[in-house]
Amino acid sequence: MNSKETAATLPLILLVYECVYHEAPNWRWADLARWIRGPGRVVLFTGCLNLLYLYSRAVAPDALRRNPAYRLVFSRGRILDFQMNSLSDLLLTWNTFDWHWVLGIWALLTYLAWRRKRPVLRFCWFYMLLTPLPIEFVQGRHGPYLYTSLAGWAVFASVVFADLVSAASTFLAGEPIFRRLGRPALSAILVVSCVFLWARQNRILKESQLKPEMENLSPQTWDAIQQLRELNPRIRPGSQVVFLDDPFHNFDMAFIAELSFKDRSVTVRLNQATPLSPKEIAAADYVFTFEAGKLVQVR
Description:
Blueprint: H1 10-21, H2 29-37, H3 41-59, H4 76-90, H5 99-114, H6 119-130, H7 133-136, H8 147-173, H9 183-231, E1 240-243, H10 252-261, E2 267-270, H11 278-282, E3 286-291, E4 294-297
Parallel strand pairs: 1-2, 1-3
Antiparallel strand pairs: 3-4
């Protein structure tokens, strides 16, 4: 839960699993109590963990909801922005979707999940819809934040792919030109062909999109590591370290610093990633910043 907010949907996902694969709990008190003592007890236990998590995130004095970077915005525009960006990332199209694509994709997913009684597709449909809820209303939460949801998309796509291969091989096996090959061989040929095309497309994306980005990013990362090593700050255990500015403007500098300090008791905070108040900066034991690309220890 401290790593990804999407884990907070686990009790809801377990409840969906019980309803999809087993009978939904009866809402009469006696039957509900019996269900909670039986299949529903894991839902109850994980729900109790969620209450503690929600208290620390929403009610506690230093709750994250007070941080502007974690502020929830409940609006239709926020949902649409999240769906466009998340679908672009999940389907590797990168900012080419508009609301027409969003509605079309979800209409197709809904049709595939509910046209026949396929528990696995219905469960994955709920999984894909519900797991992003904790991040859907927070600005800028897509890309790497989606790996929990990716499991549902992967299973859904795999089941649909297997169905399509089965249907296509059955059809081709009935054609005179392919009949001698037989359905198992045709299925194998279709799977290998699709995997080859998928791998080829991934290679094209890596060469055209990812490789240039990595070449641009790597020197910057290596430079930050080298500067931190040269500065060699002596960080006491249990200290709070703040970086006022860094070259990345994401969480990379925190990861670099944590690996360099080699002390899990040290807390690293980035002002650029999660803006800090003057009081929080003043309370830090060590303060660093980058000035004109040079790492400087302020305090």
